[in-house]
């Protein structure tokens, strides 16, 4: 499986499809690392380590892709933005967003958006086991609502075998989402790039692909991410 994945990565690389090739390179590296762990033959271990080093050099991505979402654009649900980076090897996700809160304000639905993001992770094809959320406390009476909602999301995720770790920071400003396969996505507005639906029974209320967006920019990076051999 590892050899076939690497072969596919090279083919994509040659074809100039760099984003897809990076995904395949990373999968190939992780599959070969599993072989190294299971192999007792030191000579074979060394050959595999050499191949992994070569692949790491090829995939050591200074990769940057930018997506511009125009005002009122549709078709940019979470699956559209994140799905191609959520390969089967993804098991851990980090979400940093200072505004996962304010469910009570008409202009923001961040807690619901975070829930929708978690639903996407649960559906796969990745096998996420842990989600780390770093956000900030809501103010006043909103803090109680925020904590209740996050606890409910945490309990619900546990029913699917997913652990949600929640931390708070009063100084957090950046918004980014990272996967343990090396992909990092930064969205100018964080998860809150959808406009308020016109009504509870309007098209786009449930399906984010049909929901108009605020203008924002999505930056996708790939960083070197391999385990020690």
From TrEMBL:
It comes from the Eukaryota. One of its GO terms (biological process) is midbody abscission. One of its GO terms (cellular component) is midbody. InterPro entries: MIT_dom, MIT_dom_sf, MIT_domain_contain_protein1, MITD1_C, MITD1_C_sf. Residues 1-65 form the MIT domain. It holds the Pfam family MIT_C. PANTHER family: MIT DOMAIN-CONTAINING PROTEIN 1 (PTHR21222). This is MITD1 protein. It comes from Zosterops hypoxanthus.
